[in-house]
């Protein structure tokens, strides 16, 4: 239907009906599957993914639900209903008059949905003026950058297809798993990769992935200023910014001994070196120079950085911080906080408060530091199936990445000693096969369960939701259950898309029986 001159009739307040819009496509709902490439079809049923494209593609679950408001859009203000005939119909009253119909009594499930929706529509206040910011949850995925670059490309393609926000690669010279125990009895991955130590250089890999990333932000999570001078790190990040659509993330940490001790890299005063590196990086990101800096570890003498960042793509700095001094540095200097420890929601909130207090004391907006976290996920069809996966050797070995203090909380003694501080002190390439076997036998079930988010998709989603309530805004998923078996790997890859779709849309709702 149209006017005499062929223009479509507009409905109410000058807006076209959906089917009259020139860009309308039947069966496609606006706002769904944000971030998917143009023309990607939506699965008909929740979690219905094309098996022929997995694990290199992920599908986001949208089902047949109506379109949801995207989290980055402002909450629409209710408008005054127009008076008259239309208003009476809108209020549920018959056009010809009569009594107002009583709305249906909500079921228990409806109450749960509304409560969860309210939580995701909440706003937090930041800055000095108390302005409101809509709650936004972003989701990332970590790849360990071991093996073939083709595997990384496939995982990035899956992340992009699922609409993930960030794709992180790690930076290691030696892998976190012991080479002496690496065989098909330890992990199915050993069939195609005879050693876990085929670690790829993060900078070269990210440059190779840049043309495929599209709207996905690329990141290293994390490197250190011991092996790489901050001037070199700044040049790497600024170079990557020339190749990507979004500003890349330079993740920085205090360094793990496995990447330092075997190669004779100086690592005294590791936190002090990180602090100076943060200041040098900020200096180089601020302009060409020349720049001067005098520190204990780094010196600049009229140093220049002539490579500018493209407009809007100045690299971001995320700090891998777990302890008080590093948490303070995150608040003072970083754009994001990326702890490697898996914490309870209360502990996450406590450490986030340290970060934000440090930011405020430095004259920064506490809300300017993005709260992220690396979350190891062990996901299966059911909670019982996930508990079975915890018996797999590579997943149990994750318990050995925890320090002696974490073991003592469960009444257990760490096989690597009472002073062992965890992964940053581990030298896995020196462990013998017998030592690995004894250490794995000593792992209590309670310790491994505390080091991962294990359960069904719904259980894992609930656990992440509890951390979001504590302040988490960027969960970065570590697909740990993919180490257990090929079948577990496939389900894990599918589950990343399932989890991402719900976290980003805010629909992590517990199904409650009516």
Question: Overview of this structure, please?
Answer:
With 514 residues, the chain is of the alpha/beta class. It has a domain of 288 residues: Luciferase-like domain (TIM Barrel), CATH 3.20.20.30. 32% of the residues lie in helices and 13% in strands. It is built from 15 helices and 15 strands. An eight-stranded parallel β-barrel has the order 5-6-7-8-11-12-13-15, surrounded by six helices. Strands 1-2 form a two-stranded antiparallel sheet. The chain has a two-stranded antiparallel sheet with strand order 3-4. The longest helix has 20 residues. The two termini are 44 Å apart. The relative contact order is 0.12. The N terminus and C terminus are likely disordered.
Tell me the name of the CATH homologous superfamily of the domain at 140-377 and 456-505. Luciferase-like domain
The gyration radius over C-alpha positions equals 25 Å
DSSP helical segment count:
15
What gap, in angstroms, lies between the N and C termini? 44 Å
Order of strands side by side in the largest beta sheet?
5-6-7-8-11-12-13-15
What are the SSEs and their pairings?
Elements: E1 10-11, E2 15-16, H1 85-90, H2 108-121, E3 123-126, E4 131-134, E5 140-143, H3 149-161, E6 166-169, H4 202-213, E7 217-223, H5 230-241, E8 249-252, H6 270-286, E9 291-294, E10 299-303, E11 316-319, H7 324-333, E12 336-337, H8 345-361, E13 370-380, H9 383-389, H10 393-397, H11 404-408, H12 433-441, H13 445-451, E14 453-456, H14 457-469, E15 474-478, H15 486-505
Parallel strand pairs: 5-6, 5-15, 6-7, 7-8, 8-11, 11-12, 12-13, 13-14, 13-15
Antiparallel strand pairs: 1-2, 3-4, 9-10
């Amino acid at each position: 239907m149209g006017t005499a001159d062929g223009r479509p009739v507009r409905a109410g307040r000058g807006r076209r009906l959906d089917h009259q819009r020139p860009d309308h496509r039947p069966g496609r709902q606006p706002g769904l599957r944000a971030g998917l490439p143009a023309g990607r079809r939506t699965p008909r049923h929740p979690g219905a993914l094309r098996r022929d494209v997995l694990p290199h593609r992920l599908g986001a679950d949208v089902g047949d639900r109506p379109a949801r408001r995207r989290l980055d859009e402002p909450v629409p203000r209710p408008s005054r209903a127009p008076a008259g005939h239309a208003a009476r119909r809108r209020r549920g009253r018959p056009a010809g008059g009569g009594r107002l119909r009583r709305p249906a009594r909500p079921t228990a499930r409806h109450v749960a949905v509304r409560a969860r929706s309210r939580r995701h529509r909440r706003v937090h206040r930041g800055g000095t003026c108390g302005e409101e910011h809509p709650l936004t949850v972003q989701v990332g995925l970590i790849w360990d950058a071991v093996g073939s670059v083709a595997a990384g490309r496939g995982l990035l393609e899956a992340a992009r297809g699922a609409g993930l926000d960030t794709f992180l690669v790690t930076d290691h010279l030696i892998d976190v798993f012991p080479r002496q125990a690496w065989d098909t009895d330890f992990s199915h991955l050993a069939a195609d990769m005879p050693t876990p130590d085929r670690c790829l250089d993060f900078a070269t890999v990210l440059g190779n992935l840049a043309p495929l990333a599209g709207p996905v932000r690329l990141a290293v999570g994390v490197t250190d200023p011991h092996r790489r001078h901050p001037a070199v790190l700044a040049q790497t990040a600024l170079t990557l910014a020339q190749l990507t659509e979004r500003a890349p993330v330079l993740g920085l940490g205090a360094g793990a001994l496995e990447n330092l001790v075997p190669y004779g890299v100086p690592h005294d005063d590791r936190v002090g070196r990180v602090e100076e590196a943060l200041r040098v990086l900020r200096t180089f990101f601020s302009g060409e120079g020349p720049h001067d800096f005098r520190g204990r570890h780094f010196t600049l003498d009229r140093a220049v950085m002539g490579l500018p960042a493209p407009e809007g793509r100045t690299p971001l700095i995320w700090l891998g911080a777990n302890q008080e001094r590093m948490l303070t540095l995150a608040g003072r200097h970083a754009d994001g906080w990326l702890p490697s420890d898996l914490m309870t929601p209360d502990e996450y909130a406590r450490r986030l408060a340290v970060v934000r207090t440090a930011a405020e004391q430095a004259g920064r907006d506490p809300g300017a530091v993005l709260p992220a976290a690396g979350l190891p996920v062990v996901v299966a069809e059911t909670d019982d199936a996930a508990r079975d996966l915890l018996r797999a050797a590579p997943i149990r070995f994750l318990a050995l990445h925890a320090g002696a203090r974490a073991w003592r909380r469960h009444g257990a003694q760490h096989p690597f000693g009472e002073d062992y501080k965890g992964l940053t002190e581990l030298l896995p390439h020196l462990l013998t096969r017998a030592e690995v076997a004894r250490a794995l036998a000593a792992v209590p079930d309670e310790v491994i369960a505390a080091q991962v988010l294990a359960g069904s998709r719904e259980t894992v989603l609930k656990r992440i939701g509890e951390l979001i309530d504590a302040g988490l805004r960027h969960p970065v998923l570590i697909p740990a259950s993919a180490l257990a078996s090929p079948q577990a790997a496939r389900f894990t890859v599918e589950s990343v898309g399932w989890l991402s779709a719900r976290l980003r849309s805010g629909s992590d709702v517990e199904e409650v029986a009516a």
